[in-house]
Amino acid sequence: MSCMIPIILGSSLIFARVITKETEAQLSTYSKAGQIAQEVFSSLRTVLSFNGGKLQQKQYDKELKLNEWCTVRKDAAFGAFTGWIFCINFIVYSIGFTFGSILMSYGNHRTLTISEILIVVNMFAQALSFLNSIGPFFLSISEAQGAAVSVFRLIDEAHDANINEKEILQESISDEKSISNINGDIEFDNVSFSYPSRENATALNNLKLIARANQTTALVGSSGCGKSTCVSLLLRFYEPSLGRIMIDGQSITDYKIKQFRQNIGIVSQEPILFGISIYENIRFGKMNATRAEIENAAEQANAHKFIMKLPNKYETLVGERGIQLSGGEKQRIALARALVKQPSILLLDEATSALDNVSERIVQEALDRACKNRTTIVIAHRLTTIQNADYIYVLDSGSVLEEGTHETLLAKEGGKYQTMVKMQQSEKMIDAQDGLMNMEKAAAEDEEQILERIRLLSESESIDINQEFNDCNYGDVRRRVLITCGLFILTGAIFMIFHFFQVTILLLNYINEFFHLRLQFVTFGIAGAKLVTRLRSKSFACFLRQEVAYFDRPENSSGAICTQLSSNAAAIEDMAGTRLGIICQALSMSTFGFLLGFFYNWQLTMIIAIPFVIVLIATIIEIRLSSWLKTQSNLVHSQASTLAVEVITNMRTVKQLSMEIEILQQYSNMIDQVLKLSWRPEALFATVFGLYWAMSSLTLGLL
């Protein structure tokens, strides 16, 4: 019988690998569906304005179908494993009794008795029978292995020696070289660079330029000429392929990234605000800033007046990505966030290109004041905004094509800069003559009317989705589930009846064990997977039909919605999947066992019922406490997920502001809340589990 041990270990390893692989595929496919959901709900106004809800619904459902089949294959493999374990148990009995009888009759062990054979076979079979109870744990371990693949891959990548961001999380910066009050020239010395995703395309080609201290240097050129790449390299998001960037002749790689970035303020074309208050958004520029410093920075950015007119003033929530504010208001808050730390270097990456004329004038006034007595690098699309720059570089294909002041470049006949100025002047005249943009009408348009038109545009889509809901026959689905549950209740009853008549139908019982267990896990796995797919699809459609104002609430951010789509449906699957089959079978076995016990000897059955009732009461208490914990932890997980989605989506802004430690502390505090809540339910679960095994032995002792 020992020959079965390698078979057991080998088959367990094979099934574990299959389940791990399918779990990894399951997580991968749903991550794509989750990405679609996150993109849709974080940019819902854009989706609705283009009437794209139905298309996004189809893409989401497509990924859910792939996820469904991964789940079915995983549950089928687990069902096969469970049935195989039972089959091995029966094979052990067969081999033990067969070869035991051979040894008794024909071998050299004529003294071998039947009792000795029974003892050996039963001990070995009893040891193997404990494998039957590891099924749920085996599934959990295999699922954890599949989920851990991507996690450990990410952790391993973080230890790569080529990554320069590791030092960011080091809180102690006492050993860093001080570069406060930097006041030197910034020099790009023959810098060449290609993005890792486009190594064949050169972004910068032997770029050589100097941004003088306390002066404003402008970079202009057509799209793709390398302007924004210069900013990314200066912030050390990437490292140059060739050449180096220096400050007063010293390479910026000599300084710690965190402290270096803390001396740089940046305002980009599309300002990124976090879904918190205006005060907290500005404070992210300098974590230890006082309220006076924050208000002073807001005044410098021309933001204080409009903030004070808001109902909650600085405590006003800006919504996800600052959706509650206009473009000009967001830009001014972003500028205040950059100015609150009094940076030595200021980077303006097309800060006014996306604003209307009125907002541009207000923001430009604030920018002009902010540039004084600072080393400033301006990237501009509208050349009228950089006429007062001290020096201008015209870039083309990653190299400097022209350089000089506005007057000298404009006087250069046939030059690139002169051509760009004339083109923009012509476009402005054409726009004015043709009336392509009526700013007053656009500013006066009521937002509610816009939303009403959006609703009318998507009305046909909503009808289609509603029709899909109406076409779904939930009565038929409920009937199928009840029939399936009834079949497995009958299976449990037959299992108990077999134990009373197993002498005559033992072989039929073994065959039944192998096939019905595999069938149980496969059918309930399919039912659970299809239920989760349907729930996620319908939930996604319901979210798309909500009013836009629904998503302005903090609890309905894109991160919170993605968490609901992911965790709530998965929690229902835990109940509707293979676990439901086990519960049905266990309840039916217990019920029919007690009925048969009362039929044969009610006194003995009453005695045995005492430990059963004790375990049942403890289990009910554990379930209720776990339900409470699930409710509390879901709330915290939703907040943590919202924070994680917002941070990862806006990772460049997080790195620009050196917020990593602050964000990590916030996230860790949220996770610690779940840990503090969970130890009591987990301790109770361990107690109930131990009580179950103790009562099993007690029951046998009472018998």
UniProtKB/TrEMBL annotation:
Signal peptide: 1-20
Gene3D superfamilies named among the record's database cross-references: ABC transporter type 1, transmembrane domain (1.20.1560.10), P-loop containing nucleotide triphosphate hydrolases (3.40.50.300)
Transmembrane portions of the chain: 81-105, 117-139, 487-511, 606-625, 683-702
GO cellular-component term (any): mitochondrial inner membrane
Domain ABC transmembrane type-1: 1-143, 519-703
One annotated GO biological process: oligopeptide export from mitochondrion
Name the UniProt record assigns to this protein: Uncharacterized protein
